[in-house]
Amino acid sequence: MKINLDRTSSGFCIGVQGTIHVAEEKLAAKERLFSLGDVVHNEVEVKRLEELGLTTIDEAAFEALRDSSVLVRAHGEPPETYSKAKRNNLDITDTTCPVVSKLQRTARLLDRLGYQIVIYGKRAHPEVVGINGHCGNRGVIIKHADLSEPEELERLDTRKKTALISQTTMDVPGFYELKANLEARFASAAGEQGKPWTEIRDIDITAAMTGQRPMPRTVFKDTICRQVSSRNRKLHEFALANSCIIFVAGKKSSNGQVLYGICRAANPRSYFIEDVEDLQDFWFEDTEGGSVESVGICGATSTPMWLLEKVAGFIDKRFNH
Q1: Which of 149, 154, 177, 292 has the fewest Cβ atoms within 10 Å of its own Cβ atom?
Q2: Which residues are catalytic?
């Protein structure tokens, strides 16, 4: 049985890698460190870091904490988190992903310019909570690109000038589907022919902020991280190239669910696990009762490479020795 480990489109993205590196450095220095929420959406990696001394806390524990060091993870946080930290004399170690930080700034400036901000994303996702916080929690959060969820549209006002942005880990086709559906909805409400919304850049926002050049009434900015979205095609091809796929990720990882779905669509013999205990022997059998020709091991942006290597090694030892 050939075992192929995907090292090019699986494993930590750069934002998560930065967070883990900082956490490891501080823990190695024997610092007492708290993480506001799971440092990464992978229970196995969280457990490893907690064994090194990291303490994971929720919002209630954070509010009660005093005179301590707290890690802000790659997902980022809303402004009120930093205000609470200042009041409680907490030392914040901010490891917000640079891509997310840039998106937070975009949301903040568009809000100051008076735009109704539509966020393509998942309401409860910590990154979206942070983005929404940077526009005064006034964002209209839409997960369903086809506008099929009435509750998501309750606060959408087609009379307002509007800007569309996205959670960094959402899918690119869905973002542009949502844009097209919003264009049609706004045009219908105004009783006019639909026209494309205007794509804006950072320089356009700066020009509008300084009064040099106003922006159109309806605009959009594609804020999806291409390092993450580029994995979709690569994992699709990887899944096609192997007899079966073992996809390793945490159950809480939304990125993991999306990427696993891509693998399963390409190869129905794709299986989701968190760790080696979830493996089933019959997954590796061919139609004649022998072993499959090849197994592909891959995972999410929140899956550490050491865990993928552990899974590959376990399968190799079990079936090839």
Answers
A1: 154
A2: 127
Cα–Cα distance measured from residue 13 to residue 77, given in angstroms and rounded to the nearest whole number: 19
Instruction: Please check whether residue 225 is in contact with residue 170, taking contact to mean a CB–CB distance below 8 angstroms.
Output: no
Its sign, for the CA torsion 184, 188, 194, 199, is: negative
**Residue listed under structure tokens 């020009």:** 207
Please state whether the predicted TM-score (pTM) of the whole model is above 0.90: yes
